[in-house]
């Protein structure tokens, strides 16, 4: 049987389906707000309390649709219920229904104008809806309250900054500083605003204030050094980095800043030396290092990347030595080694990563891609089965499991796991197409031709140019002598898409042969032979069959004998040679 597999093709797939989330459906327009009389009678109050507290109960047990329904009913009874409107708005925001959420929060603020939570949420909604002016206006209500808190001033300042109102924001930040004193977060907010306004001296002063207020903190010297470096004052930058080290020789952050300094000075050797020191520092958190390092890895092929392959490998080793139990390092290193074709080493790293933390689905994914690419089928089956146990809802892992079972002739099991995986595919047509393609191959092997062709049709609905499905489908139709016009169209398409592919040329020749167009088939099969990258018994046997039908009996026998030497031929070939005639039969 000639069949083209997707073992390597699936390596390009990287998306897994997302589990369905429950959605809250509802619109403000669907609610009747005609009852504006807050003086509820006893019956109304009883119903209102029932609906309101049921809404709270269902919110607590995470049933958003029921919670929405009950809060909506409560709001129908008392349209001035700000908390009802607030809860409904939050539920709608969870489903990104910002327009409807805005309407409800306007209602909440209308009837509870002094509620900080309501005012803050409405301001954020306005900002998300690109209504910056309204966002600022509603936020400023917070400091119009009788007793604004520090958080109120800070929120208003943030909204003002987001909308370019820097002077107003600075007024509020200075009020906060008068209330709470100098602190890092506040000073950096002001620092950033001064930089945006190109007020360089004032920005510098904010950092100097921090150094004066907290003389023992070496980080502030680093930040000031970074500021000078960005301003092009390398001498002052170096002075501040030196002061940072004088105060705290174990401050690893300074090495990253010094690395930037030496890079700017054009000293690549000292840049690398400082960088290695920084990554080896034990007082810098791992995630900070990882975020700093990965851009160098991602851009390793760019000419302006100062780190070469050996440098990247060295830093990975430093990170592993310093943070031995961080699975992300092993996984990222495994990806890197895979990309430079050190696959055996990469495999060991992925395994170490999963020994540390088997809950990392992305590492499982990359590991399975690697095993698939090196075609270690028994290992692929073992590890994909483990991945499915950890993540039964991720279809890609079932695809790997099904592929390995198919290769092991566990056909029933392969069909079962593929069907389960297909059920979980969401919003990923490419992945869904692979499932249908494989299921077509599996059901053909099981002899269920109806299901085989049904899945092939579905795969081609997703991608009409899927050459592997087109080839397999047309070949199986030709073997059965069915729907040969369709088989010819599909096979011709594969040759059009990949004119130098010997397998596709062979299939096209065989379809033409089945249609009795022997001279055309001879021309195509000769092109297939010319394009063979390695000997193929199937193709050479087909060549012999086609020669026979073109009247060249001796040539046919010669090709059939050659096919036997190569191997991978039909069971009828010896009989063909003995009788010196073509014998039709499924291969």
General description of the model:
With 587 residues, the chain is mainly alpha-helical. It has a domain at 501-587: Serine Threonine Protein Phosphatase 5, Tetratricopeptide repeat, CATH 1.25.40. It contains 31 helices and no strands. The chain has helices spanning 42-60, 64-77, 82-93, 98-111, 116-128, 132-139, 150-162, 166-180, 184-196, 200-213, 219-230, 234-247, 253-264, 268-280, 286-298, 309-322, 327-339, 343-356, 361-373, 377-390, 395-407, 411-423, 429-445, 449-462, 467-480, 484-497, 502-514, 518-530, 537-549, 553-566, 573-579. Helix 14 runs parallel beside helix 16 (309-322). The protein starts with 41 loop residues before the first helix and ends in an 8-residue tail after the last helix. Mean pLDDT is 90; it is low at 1-23 and 32-37.
Given as residue ranges, the uncertain stretches (5+ residues, pLDDT < 50) are: 1-23, 32-37
Question: Got a strand count?
Answer: 0
Q: Would you give the CATH topology of the domain at 501-587?
A: Serine Threonine Protein Phosphatase 5, Tetratricopeptide repeat
Sheet with the most strands, sense and barrel status: none
Distance separating the two termini:
6 Å
Helix fraction, binned, reads over 70%
**How many H/I helical runs?**
31
What overall form do the CA principal axes indicate? extended
Helix and strand composition category: mainly alpha
CATH architecture title of the domain at 501-587? Alpha Horseshoe
